[in-house]
């Protein structure tokens, strides 16, 4: 569905995307993860055919975006990070008007709007203006609108940012349904649990390059351990415990109020730490997550 080789995007002297290779297969959910400024949005804009590449090769649906941009855009759907709905129109009108941009007949878009409102659980809001909708409803409408042309490829930029847990899980359900229907998904997200839930494969980008690629399970196995033991201390007291516990883990992170011990068996490490006289304020054994991988690859320093 998407194939990029040595793909580059420059803005003047600044190189936002630095020669990445990406391959997205038909029917999968593929993720781009990375901190701010990693090059995710620049890559998505090139795939969406709204920003030309500076160098390298790019094929979307087997076509060249430079020569076949309109043909590609007619076959893809785009969900931007910020909702750009027509606030003064009703839910139904937003879908129908957008469908007409693709040259679809009035009869077709009327029927399609009914189908999409049902899919997005917005049927009861059909005649309501967008301005009155909740954030979750607006997000579902934006996704529904992106499906009006029956896209083969759907690009979603931070699809659940700012939503409460119930709204996020409802959107996940809708995206699972789309994937089961054969729609290929490309997702950028800052939520690591979302990436684990939705993505078959993903890349972690940092500084315009790809730092790692694989399925969530593969990345956790490659860059982390099966479990993590968190030992929480009063601020400033955690460093004194490091010599006692450093042999109990494959890797240790020292944070302002705790130690993170990356180990195969967290309970066994905790028992040995207690035996060595380590007395944290609290302890927690959890499984390793994609967030552990993400922070190891990109660091904990805030990037503006």
Automatic annotation (TrEMBL):
Q: Which residues form the ABC transporter domain?
A: 2-232
What cellular-component terms does GO give this entry? plasma membrane
Q: Which residues cross the membrane?
A: none
Query: Quick one: signal sequence residues?
Result: none
Family matches, as PROSITE patterns: ABC_TRANSPORTER_1 (PS00211), ABC_TRANSPORTER_2 (PS50893)
User: Has the keyword Chaperone been applied to this entry?
Assistant: no
Q: Identify the keywords attached in UniProt to this record, alphabetized.
A: Antibiotic resistance, ATP-binding, Cell membrane, Membrane, Nucleotide-binding, Translocase, Transport
Domain of life according to the entry = Bacteria
Q: How does it sit in the membrane?
A: Peripheral membrane protein
Picking any one GO molecular function of the record gives: ATP hydrolysis activity
Q: Where in the cell is it found?
A: Cell membrane
Read off the SMART domains from this record.
Answer: AAA (SM00382)
GO BP term, example: response to antibiotic
- PANTHER family, alphabetized: ABC TRANSPORTER ATP-BINDING PROTEIN, ABC TRANSPORTER ATP-BINDING PROTEIN NATA
For this chain, the family text in UniProt reads: Belongs to the ABC transporter superfamily.
Name of protein = ABC transporter
């Amino acid at each position: 569905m998407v194939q990029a080789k040595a793909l580059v995007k420059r803005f003047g002297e600044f190189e936002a995307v630095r020669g990445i290779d990406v391959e997205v297969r038909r029917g999968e959910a593929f993720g781009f993860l990375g901190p701010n400024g990693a090059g995710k949005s620049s890559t998505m804009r090139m795939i969406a055919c709204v920003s030309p590449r500076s160098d390298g090769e790019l094929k979307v649906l087997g076509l060249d975006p430079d020569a076949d941009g309109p043909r590609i855009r007619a076959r893809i759907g785009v969900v931007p990070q910020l909702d750009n709905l027509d606030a003064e129109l009703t839910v139904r009108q937003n879908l129908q008007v957008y469908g007409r941009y693709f040259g679809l007949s009035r009869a077709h878009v009327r029927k399609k709007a009914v189908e999409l409102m049902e899919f997005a659980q917005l049927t009861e809001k059909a005649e309501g203006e967008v301005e009155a909708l909740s954030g979750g409803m607006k997000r579902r409408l934006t996704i529904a609108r992106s499906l009006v042309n029956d896209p083969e490829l759907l690009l979603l930029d931070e699809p659940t940012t700012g939503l409460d847990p119930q709204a996020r899980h409802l959107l996940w359900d809708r995206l699972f349904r789309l994937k089961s229907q054969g729609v290929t998904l490309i997702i950028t997200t800052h939520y690591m649990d979302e990436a684990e839930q939705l993505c078959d494969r993903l890349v972690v980008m940092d500084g315009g390059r790809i730092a790692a690629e694989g399925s969530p399970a593969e990345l956790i196995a490659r860059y982390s351990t099966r479990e993590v033991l968190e030992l929480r201390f009063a601020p400033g007291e955690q460093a004194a415990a490091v010599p006692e516990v450093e042999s109990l883990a494959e890797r240790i992170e020292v944070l302002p109020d705790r130690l993170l011990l990356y180990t195969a068996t967290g309970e066994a490490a905790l028992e040995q730490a207690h035996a060595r006289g380590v007395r944290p304020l609290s302890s927690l054994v959890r499984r390793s997550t994609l967030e552990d991988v993400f922070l190891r690859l990109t660091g904990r320093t805030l990037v503006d």
